[in-house]
Amino acid sequence: MAAVIPQIQQNDSWYLSLLGLAEAFRTANPPKIKLCIHCLESIFQFQPPPHIEARTHLQLGTLLFTHTKNIDLARSHLEKACMLSQSIQINSFDDVKFEASSVLAEIYQQLNQLHLAKPVLRKAIGVSQLSAYWHCRLLFQLAQIHAYEKDIISACELLGVGADYACMARSDYSRCLFLLSKGMLLLLDKKLTEVHQVLSTCGTLIESFTGNPTQQESLKVFFLILQVCHFLLAGQSVKPCLKQLQQSIQTITVLHSDDEPLSSNPADLFHWLPKEHMCVLVYLVTVMHSMQAGYMDKAQKYTDKALLQIGKLKILDSHPILSAFQLMLLEHIIMCRLVMGNKSLAIQEISQACLVCQQQPKLFTTHGAQLHTLLGLYSMSMNCMESAEAQFTTACRLTTQTELWIFISLNLAIVYLRCGNRQQEAVSLLERIQPENIRTNSHCLKAAAFYVKGLQSFFQNRYNDAKRYLRETLKMSNTEDLNRLTACSLVLLGHIFLSLGNTRESLNMVMPAMQLASKIPDVHVQLWASALLKDLYQLSGDPIRESEGYQMHTTFSSQLLKDHFQSSQLSEHALIQWTEGPCPVQQPPDGASASLL
């Protein structure tokens, strides 16, 4: 506050005194915000000149916005600051003009008045070309609002304008930030060809970047995260890229950015994410890859590390992005628990995910479909098929994402197939998801669609069709390192060959399925495979191995039954009945919440 004192006359010592006193209250430990506000309000009693009045309105509006819940008064002060600043022709006053516009737009966005925020920013962008820092910042801010509205085209146009402006301002760093942000939005919009073009341009720029090391590594981490997500979205192998990313994040954590000189170019004064947030994000994409590839132990390990880091960061600064990261990590670890047969942990973590959404209510809007999908998967694992159907139906209604809709629909089809008397519903649903022409860029989903078609053919005793579909799944899952789909396809093929009386071929399928399921580990595939092994050894007259198979099957069955009972006794189990209205999970007292999260 004290660092931005306007030009004043000698007889304005009252202003310096009040401003210094306000700053002393603001920086006190703890801050005395109420007294700080009183000091600033006192300035108006002296009928100050317009430039001091405008700056004071900005300071009051910012303080009220950041430290109080009086958002209407904050908005009023900032609107006055914007109005006054339009008529002031002082070059050094531009910062007040643009900061007031930026903070006012933030308030409008928080009040969900985006129709008011956008013209404020557009007007400021139109007159800020000579102020490189503010021009770039305002472009980023307006692009973010368009992205929030899902107007990806307008957001990308603004980011393109920003990249061109940064190039003219001789800021390769901000040019890369604008382009990578554009690539991120194109990735969300599934425009993979355009993503590839943007990433190719950025890769060249980053390699030739000559700025300070922290900026270069920061750009490299952003770039590699987009590359990993690009490959994950396409269901392709990401190992080399992920290894580069992990090396890059290790490099950036040991760099001492405080010792590096600040750039003299105002357009360079941005950063994508703090290092600590980058570390969490790298953990998250590592977990995403581990889940897709079927490395559950690795997924658990990195989720634990990331959640611990988030817990520490939230003590210092509860930034909304941390809650988003936390929720995505929980979503992945819940699926991991279900695969490993830990249903009791899974339902407790679903409850935790609901609590995270209650702390940041906007997350219910963006992740509501995912929560109901997880409840559907949990219900399936508990053999509560009616609840599973209700949850998947709710999730389908809530989602606007094609890939998530396909994932939900494939699981709903499995529910219908497992019910026995719902074959027609399964047929009708799967007619809309033909794997040969499915509308997705994800190899993983295409492979899963072939698997479900194979499962449907198996239930219909169309074994040749089932084998054809499952071989397509194996071809795709082996190419893209999708171990869980490989294990599921092998064990189902083993079951088909056993049904056809071909015990030798069945054993050739079931043995590698069991080995792969043990490596994942996937307890449900292990249970299925051990049952088949027991029958196969009985048919081949091998009582010793038959006994081993029986013992394995009993062990897995007992483990699942014990966990099934524990899960059914938990209060969180009642969540499977929630399909509409507010979430029934209640926010615990602060102490209890801290111990949970």
Protein described:
By secondary structure, the protein is mainly alpha-helical. Helices cover 75% and strands 0% of the residues. The protein has helices at 13-26, 33-43, 50-67, 71-85, 94-110, 114-126, 132-148, 152-168, 172-188, 192-207, 213-233, 239-254, 275-293, 296-316, 320-340, 343-359, 362-381, 385-398, 402-419, 423-431, 443-459, 463-479, 483-499, 503-519, 523-539, 543-569, 590-596. The radius of gyration is 29 Å and the shape is elongated. The model is unreliable at 1-11 and 591-597 (pLDDT under 50).
Count of separate DSSP helical elements? 27
Backbone CA Rg? 29 Å
- Alpha-beta content class: mainly alpha
Overall mean confidence score, pLDDT: 90
The helix/strand order is HHHHHHHHHHHHHHHHHHHHHHHHHHH
Largest sheet properties: none
Distance between the termini: 36 Å
Q: Let me know the number of strands.
A: 0
Q: What sort of overall outline do the alpha carbons produce when their principal axes are compared?
A: elongated
Q: Low-confidence stretches at least 5 residues in length (pLDDT < 50)?
A: 1-11, 591-597
Strand content: under 5%
Which bin fits the share of residues in helices? over 70%
Write a concise synopsis of the structure shown.
By secondary structure, the chain is mainly α. It is built from 27 helices and no strands.
